[in-house]
């Protein structure tokens, strides 16, 4: 019997993470749904299981290395291996730079940059031991060019771009791949509590973007841009 590949997706209770979870599940992957709030993760878990797929909710705050270690230990105790990681969790606060509080700045950088780095650092020894692994870093077109009233968010996504490109070089002679994914706006809860985007309904749906990511995934590109 062929073992199902397991993907750990961060921020999988909402938006693109949820869409990726459902899309990869339909393709036959087992999904570990990660995020800070258990309720939305459990709802996605039920949705996937009702469709005949396999999923499990695992609560984790990626900004906290203890929370990451606790999640990975709990999975190890259940003999659950991880074949792929999708670093999708991210936050954004927008407006003129001086309107952002230090707390806002910390949250953006801690989640988008430090969280991505900490979780990747925690999983790399497992991937190296099993001599396989695949990492998708969900960035944004904000990782490709500067934008008005998005300075800190853009800075965080440029950082993840640099992190991804450097890891690609660092892992060049290993069986571990890293893909940097750059997409434009999506109609997700990301824009709730913000008037930075006037009409998010003009954006692509996360389901459309998730399908495109999956369709590119087999080619294991270093970069995937979906504007
Ligand atoms: N929406 C867009 O227009 C757009 C465009 C390009 C790129 N992106 C990127 O796409 C990714 C997904 O965003 P989205 O649009 O789907 O927004 P979203 O629905 O707000 O999803 C973000 C997810 O991240 C999780 N999260 C936040 N902080 C976390 C933490 N400390 N630890 C673990 N999980 C955390 C949230 O769950 P909890 O709150 O439960 O933890 C939430 O499920 C982000 O990286 C975003 O930057 C979005």
TrEMBL record:
CDD domains according to UniProt: SDR_c
**Which keywords fit this entry according to its UniProt record?**
Oxidoreductase
Question: What are the GO MF terms of this UniProt record?
Answer: oxidoreductase activity
- Write out the coiled-coil annotation as residue ranges: none
Decide whether keyword Oxidoreductase is in the record: yes
Pfam families in the cross-refs: adh_short (PF00106)
Keyword Cell membrane belongs to the record = no
Identify the GO cellular component terms for this protein.
membrane
Q: Which PANTHER family match?
A: DEHYDROGENASE/REDUCTASE SDR FAMILY MEMBER 7B, DEHYDROGENASE_REDUCTASE SDR FAMILY MEMBER 7B
Belongs to which family?
Belongs to the short-chain dehydrogenases/reductases (SDR) family.
What protein am I looking at?
Short-chain dehydrogenase
Q: Which organism is it from?
A: Bacillus taeanensis
């Amino acid at each position: 019997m062929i073992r199902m590949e397991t993907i750990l997706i961060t921020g999988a209770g909402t938006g693109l993470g949820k869409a990726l979870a459902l899309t990869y599940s339909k393709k036959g992957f087992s999904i570990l749904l990660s995020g800070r709030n258990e309720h939305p993760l459990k709802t996605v878990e039920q949705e996937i299981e009702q469709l005949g797929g396999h999923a499990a909710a695992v609560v984790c705050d990626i900004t906290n290395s203890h929370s990451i270690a606790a999640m990975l230990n709990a999975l190890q105790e259940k003999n659950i291996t991880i074949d792929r990681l999708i670093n999708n969790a991210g936050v954004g606060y927008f407006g003129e730079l001086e309107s952002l509080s230090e707390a806002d700045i910390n949250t953006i950088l801690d989640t988008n940059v430090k969280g991505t780095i900490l979780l990747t650092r925690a999983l790399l020894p497992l991937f190296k031991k099993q001599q396989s692994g695949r990492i998708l870093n969900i960035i944004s077109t904000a990782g490709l060019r500067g934008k008005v009233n998005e300075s800190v968010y853009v800075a965080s996504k440029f950082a993840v771009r640099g992190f991804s490109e450097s890891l690609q070089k660092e892992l060049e002679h290993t069986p571990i791949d890293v893909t940097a994914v750059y997409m434009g706006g999506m109609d997700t809860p990301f824009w709730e509590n913000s008037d930075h985007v006037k009409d998010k309904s003009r954006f692509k749906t996360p389901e459309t973007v998730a399908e495109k990511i999956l369709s590119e995934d087999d080619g294991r590109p270093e970069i995937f841009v979906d504007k």
